Amino acid sequence: MKTTNSLQKLKAAAFLFVASLFVSQGIHAQAQTLTLKDAIKYALENKADSKKAKLEVENSKYQIEEVRSRALPQIAANGNLTYNPILQLNALPGDFFGQPGTTLLAPLGQKWTAGGGISLTQNIFDQAVFTGLKAAKTTREFYQINQQLTEEQVIERVANNYYQVFVQRQKLAVVDSNYVNTSKVRDIIKGQFDNGLAKKIDLDRMTVNLYNINTKRQQLINALQLQENALKFYMGMPIETPIIIPDTEFEVTPQALSEAPLTATRSEYLLLEKQEQLLIYQKKSIIAGYYPTLSISGSYNYLGQGPEMPLFAKPADGVYWTDYSSIGLNLRVPIFTGFGTRAKVRQADVEIRRIKEDMIDTKLSLDLAYENAKTQINNSIITINSQKENVKLAQEVLDNTQNNYYNGLAPLTDLLDAENSNVEAQNNYTTALLDYKLAEIQLIKSKGELRTLSN
């Protein structure tokens, strides 16, 4: 009775398994087929990191315009309206008013004063402005390289996760195949048991094995879903979008292992070079504080005064309007700043020396990454070839063991061990492929050729 219940549960599990395959096929019919190239292209167009890098390049254009404005004329209009409730009294000699020997208190100014005008200032010589213009251009180049580096980082993350999704799907396919094969063996054992040719314990052990395989399958489905979600996140794709990864994307195509690439062509190193240039301009901008500055200024104004609000008033109301203008040449020569400028120059020099050390360390790091990637590639190829032979051998052992078991020449334990070894061999082969692909990405990255993955 217990065996019958177990068989019924197993049939129900088998039904759910087959149904899930049909549902999966139905979903795939609506899913988006995604090659690695498609995934990278989508990420470069939709991932927030890539979009923000493009915005920084766009913003650098406006930063250049901001610096350039300091070299252009500065024009401003001004106006004011003042009411003086109490006028200041000034002590004046009475001689001015025909009263010698006396002092008179007389108000100066009017109750109302209004004025308006326009002013212009133009830098003629300011070394800091000229240095700033050069630095602004370098800043734009810095953001362009930073955009390139950001896109390479996006490509690397997408490629790594893409292959990890593929591996999870391959492992799930292995488990699905193992489930189908084990179900066939269980059916044969059941037939033998019904005819009194097999033991009940053998049938029960196969039933337990099927349950374990199904449990492992559910775990892989969950892991695959999590990995797909991670891939979609790094692509900037809505999480609910179903995707299909073609098997042809996971081929071993050995990379050419040439001499180490030039470090100077790597985005990481180019970015440090631009940072060094910016620090040099920053130092020059500070040194510009030692230079004199020369500018020209001019203004033209109208002034109205009277006992009433000057706006719209006339001389008959006691309000008089007059105009005045000025033109000036302004020279500023720094003489002593308390050694503040010298201290800033020395700080800037320390920053330059620090970035040089970063460049040396980055070069070593990039060389290390290249050598490690080459070593991993070679080891992965050896492992792949070994595991490929191991898969072939494990399948032969399984076939022979099944045949011996059906003929009563091998115990069930040997059959179960052969099945487990076959699954393990296939998973090891798939893992070796993943290790190779991840190493391949690192090798391509170390050669500065990640963009080729999107071509």
TrEMBL record:
Q: Where in the cell is it found?
A: Cell outer membrane
* Major subcellular location class: membrane
Instruction: Respond yes or no to whether keyword Iron is given for this record.
Output: no
**Record-linked InterPro entries:** OMP_efflux (IPR003423), TolC-like (IPR051906)
Q: Name one GO molecular function term.
A: porin activity
Q: Got a GO cellular component term for this one?
A: cell outer membrane
> Is Signal one of the keywords?
yes
For this UniProt record, give its keywords in alphabetical order, as a comma-separated list. Cell outer membrane, Membrane, Signal, Transmembrane, Transmembrane beta strand, Transport
One of the Pfam families matching this protein, by short name: OEP
Q: Where is the signal peptide?
A: 1-29
- Record family assignment: Belongs to the outer membrane factor (OMF) (TC 1.B.17) family.
Q: What is this protein called?
A: TolC family protein
Q: Which organism is it from?
A: Flavobacterium macacae
